[in-house]
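FORM 7B: Structural annotation worksheet

SECTION A. Query
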Amino acid sequence: MHAVSGLPLPATASLRAALAGILLLLLTQPALSQPVLNFKRVTVNWPTIELYFAVDCDGQAAYRMAKENWRIYENGEAVPDFTLWCPDPFVRCAGSFAFVADASGSMRGSAMDITKRNLHAFIDLMDGSVDESALIEVRREPVVAQSMTTIIPFLRTAVDNLQARGASSLYDGIEAGINELINNGTNQCRAVLVFSDGWDNMSTATAQEIISLANRNRIRVFTIGVGNNVAATELEMIALLTGGRYFQNPDIGQMATIYADVNTIIFQGFQECVMTYERVCADGSPRTIDLQLVDFCGGEDVKAKTYRAPLDSSTWVQETQRFRIGERTSIPTDFISIPVTVDHPSTGIVIRPFDMAILPGSPHRPLLDVVIPPGSPFHGKAVTVHHSMDSVFVRLDETVPALAGDTLLLLRFGTASVFDGWYPLAAEAGSTRIRCTATEILAGGYRIVPRREPRIDPGGEVMICPGSGTELHLPEGYVRYRWSTGDIT
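SECTION B. Predicted structure
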């Protein structure tokens, strides 16, 4: 009998097997998860800036981020102080509602009856425990018929007492409903429900003001058109632009569907995370926000959005950024370079856009050039230099991070055949472009000393015996001294 031994595979077969094994390994390894940041919108509720976002981790919604996982930069400047709130996805979002009931004369009869029935139907769908509502009655002026409460019988009584008569201040009533939620609503999911035929003849508030107020405060407005002659266009616009929905002449049976729709829509908003931080300078400028998620779900992501700050001169509290023109002493030479440095007590700062006019100390010694040296924070940035007669104008058009003591610019002056003396240098900073930042430049200059042949003065005895000594003197005015021993004193 012969033993059967295994035969080695041909080289090509071995290679195919190895590749197949590698391929199988790659196919069976789980893909590394990465976070996906959905930066949804920026809401300006000055001085508060609100950032709304959602995060997916490996295709699943994620909520358990910490502040340490986030970085916020506005126009390149880090925002160190901010709040972070994310919902608990396992907890039902309780509702705070403001019912705005049009009780003007145009709602008299069947429109008022339908409004009452629909309001009762909606109230009965509340849980009677944490859901809360208020009722705003709208005629010539809006009235809070029932302040915010969880008690259903109180709400039903307020609805039963509605009576249609008089003029309509519908927009003022919607504004009052929004303010009731802002001031007294305690739940995260908030909405205004308006029951009206849409006609308004007394309001001071406009539709645009209502929409802006609602959006600044994360409040959705749902409008229910009631009656045979409904001004639907305005009601639809308010609902659409606040993230709500418009319904026209629903019957009682549809109120359960409307209740479900309202809760679904506001709960989707509740599922968003929000960050807030404060700004102090309402200068009307555009701002770019970079929102960065780091060290979460095995990776990082960054998204950006822009907004425009409001324009309010009362907020223009001046912060001063300070630069210093250096001082140097030199003998006559081809040129001398004078640095312009950051003069600031803090280690790290942000230099904001500025205009600077550099004024030479003598019309006979014009400024030859302005140089941005390697290593300057201005290197590669939006800096322009313009010569005009004896002066030079420097303009920075972006925000630049810097460190105290950094050299920003070098001012080059020719010093050949220059008379002895001190040549002061000053600069004037423009302030019209930067409303909340003042720029100050501390003066400097350069001193030219004559080139003299050194003459050593023994100051006394010229004969020196072994073991004794004498003191030698040199004239003032030299930048450096070096003796034959290497001493430089």
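SECTION C. Observations
The mean pLDDT is 84. The first strand starts at residue 35 and ends at 45.

SECTION D. Sign-off
Analyst initials: ____
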